[in-house]
Design a protein that fits this description.
alpha/beta; 11 helices; single chain; ATP-binding; 5-stranded parallel β-sheet; 5 strands; binds adenosine-5'-triphosphate; about 270 residues
Amino acid sequence: KEKNQIVEIEEKRDTFADVGGLEEVKKQIKIDFILPIQSPEIFQAFGKEIGGGLLFYGPPGCGKTFLARAVAGEINARFVHLDLQSILSKWSGEAEQNLHDFFEDARKRTPCVLFIDELDALGGNRQKMSAHHDRLLVNQLLIELDGSASNNEGIYVIGATNTPWYLDPALRRPGRFNSLIFLPPPQLEERKAILALKIKGKPQEEIQLDLIAAYTEHFSGADLDHLVKDAINFAIARSFETGEIQPLTNEDFMKAMEKRQATTLEWFATAK
Ligand code: ATP
C-alpha cells in the first residue's frame, strides 16, 4: 500500500436542489461555469474563451461556501477548501510555500472545485504580514491560478469574500476571478424555500412558513438554519419530557425567534 495515501470518504453531496432560492444565480453559474466544463467543445467552436474562476461575495452566511459545495456536487467533483487565513505566516516565503503545496495537493485530487475562502485576507490584513509579504503572496496565487508552471486541468476555482472592494485588482483579470457573483440575503419566497428545505422530513405539525418567512426579514441562510435548529431543540426537549416524539410546532418557532436576530444589516452598513 502506498504511503501517505489520502483516504476518500464518500459522503452525500449537496447539489443545487439543496440550495434554497438563488434561482437566477444558479442559472448564471450553469451557463458561465458548469456548461463550459461539461461541453467545452461547444464554447470553443464559437470562439468563446473558457476558464477563469467565479468570485462569490455578499454578507456572511448567505451561502458562499454552501453554493460552492453544491457546484462541486453538480459536476461530480471533489470539494477542496482553502482558508487563506490559515496559511498566512510571518516567516518569509512560508505562506507562498504553503499555498503552492496546497495547490499541488489539489492537482492530485482532480476533478475538484477548489474553494478559496476569505480572499480579502490578501491585501487587507496586515497583522501577520507586511505589505511586501502580502504582495509576494498575491503573486504566488496568480502563478498558481494561471497554471503556466503547472497543469490546472480539472481544477475549478471559486473564490469568496465578504469585502470585494479590498480585493487586489490583479485577481479580477480575465482567466482569474473574472465572474463576480453577488449572493444577497434571501427574499421572502427564498426564505420560505430555505425553511422548507431545513424542516423537510422532520416530525412536524402544519408549519406556517409564510408567517415565519415574513417575520425573518434580513435573515441570512445561516440565520435561518440556526432558527430551525433552535426550534427543533425545543421539540426534542418536549419529546424527552413526555417520552414520545413530539412534532415541531409553530410555537417552537415563535420561541426560537425571540432569541435570533438578522445578521445581514451590518454588512450593508459597511459595504462600499
Ligand atoms: P461566511 O461569509 O460567514 O463564510 P457563507 O456565505 O460562506 O458565510 P455558508 O457557510 O455558505 O455561508 O452558509 C451557512 C449555512 O447557512 C449553510 O451551511 C446552510 O445551512 C445555510 N444556508 C445559507 N444559504 C442557504 C441557502 N440558499 N439554502 C439553504 N441553506 C443555506
